[in-house]
Amino acid sequence: MSIQKIYQYPEPVLRKETEIITAFDEKLAHLVEEMVETMYDAPGVGLAAPQIGQSLKLIVVDTSRDSEEDQQQQQHMVIINPQIIKHEGSQVDEEGCLSVPELTAKVNRHKKITVTYQDLTGKEHELTTEDRFAVVLQHEIDHLNGILFIDHLSPLKRSLYKKKVKKWLKG
Ligand code: NI
Q1: How many domains does the chain have?
Q2: Residue 117 buriedness (CB in 10 A; 0-12 / 13-18 / 19+)
């Protein structure tokens, strides 16, 4: 196991459409371990495979509760080949991304979603969730389609951020 490099905007791998996972094998389990370790090290609440340069439909999310007694125990979920099959309502919440440094912004998302996905053994699941966890899932699922949260911002905000990044890259 080792902590992986997190790719940042404008790396092209973040913009690629990802591949469906069909082999639920040792290699996949190893990749998941690396992603979990990388997510907790960052630290982040979720990580999608393209963020470590793997163009696959795979995300890990932190589901540890915030209360102090639970802090010792890190819990996470592995979500493979997810699809949002139902959504309702809308909500606006502050988002950031390990691949989009130095920026947080309010993003409009569905309030409640139903997602189908597979776990590490290939077993199929259906999950309905709302509020903050629904935001995290929508953000991570976007990554699997080459979408970053800056794509949901106004053209003006987005171009300001792009200019800032260009300046950093030059500097
Ligand atoms: Ni992100």
Answers
A1: 1
A2: buried
How far is ligand 1, taken at its centre, from the CA of residue 13, in Å? 13
Q: What is the distance between the alpha carbons of residues 147 and 32, in angstroms, rounded to a whole number? A: 21
- Residue 72 belongs to domain with CATH number: 3.90.45.10
What pTM does this model have?
A: 0.94
In a domain, 70, yes or no: yes
User: What is the pLDDT tens value at each position of the chain, 171 positions in all?
Assistant: 699 999 999 999 999 999 999 999 999 999 999 999 999 999 999 999 999 999 999 999 999 876 556 556 789 999 999 999 999 999 999 999 999 999 999 999 999 999 999 999 999 999 999 999 999 999 999 999 999 999 999 999 999 999 999 999 998
Measure 32 CA to ligand 1 centroid, in angstroms: 17
Residue 164 in any domain: the answer is: yes
Ligand 1 midpoint to CA 87 (Å): 20
Cβ atoms of 136 and 130 within 8 Å: the answer is no
| 136 C-alpha to ligand 1 centroid (Å) | 9
- Which residues carry out catalysis? 140
Token code pair at residue 52? 């470590």
Q: Which domain holds residue 136?
A: 12-170
